[in-house]
Amino acid sequence: METLTSPNNDRVKMVTKLMKSAKERRNTALYAVEGVRMTQEIPEDDLDTLFFTQDFYDKSILGNDRLKRLVDCADHNGKCFVVSDSVIKHMCDTETPQGILALVRMRKNELDDIFGDGSEPPLILIVERLQDPGNMGTIIRAAEGAGVTGILVSFDSVDIYSPKVIRSTMGSVFRKKIVVSRDLLSDIEKLKEKGVSVFGMHLDGSTMYETDLTGPVAFLIGNEGAGLSDEVSRSADKLIKIPMKGEVESLNAAVSASLISYEAMRQRDKQKL
């Protein structure tokens, strides 16, 4: 394994670019993952490169079979590097790096991939113009918990591979089928042509408890401040809402996506009884 001690090393420079630039991530089809928990969840087929300090290797990798397998995999491909403490701090996005960083290859998912494996009706989230990394990461994480089969994200949303989004997913980004759409309206029509009922989350809609969500469904989730655009709202088969009491006018986008996904899961589980 080669040791890297200078922030001017080309590989180190590439990592810092990946951390800061969505364009660089798209051009290389790579994104960065930091920390023990996230790194050890990376599928071996998706792993590209590993960087870690000698101290981290001695204290955390030698006693961790999963991390050791990832090291062996990266080392076999000549993409495993020991870095100095100063270099790992230069590379990482977090204030106090844990001592390990990985580069991961992006998966090339297609629209058909978000339909799932056929064992359950498709349950899809369609995210339009979402800007907050924490919201996006929470939606991806909640989607896994609720059994969502896939997520369709408009290209003008926050980059799903940005460091803050990746951290917020807590590993779910490795397991969920996510497609970034260049033409959201066209892709929504394609879903409808395949029998998916598209529901827009909107304050003018019917309550979600009065709506049958057991079939193939997709839910439209809008921007944090502006909600869904008018044209995307018009593409919905029906508008639905989450009932609220008190003087609350709306809920956080990630909360809304989570609640509607879990309501669909509840209805489906009840139907099986």
Describe the structure.
The protein is of the alpha/beta class. The chain has eleven helices and eleven strands. The chain has helices at 10-20, 22-28, 36-40, 54-61, 65-76, 85-91, 133-145, 163-169, 184-193, 230-234, 253-272, and strands at residues 2-4, 30-34, 47-52, 80-83, 100-105, 123-127, 150-154, 178-181, 197-207, 217-221, 238-241. The protein has a six-stranded parallel beta sheet with strand order 8-7-6-10-9-11. The protein has a five-stranded mixed beta sheet with strand order 1-4-3-5-2. β6 (123-127), α7 (133-145) and β7 (150-154) form a beta-alpha-beta unit. α1 crosses α2 (22-28) and α7 runs parallel beside α11. It is elongated. It starts with a strand and ends with a helix. The model has no long low-confidence stretch (mean pLDDT 94).
Keywords:
11 strands, 11 helices, six-stranded parallel β-sheet, 273 residues, alpha/beta
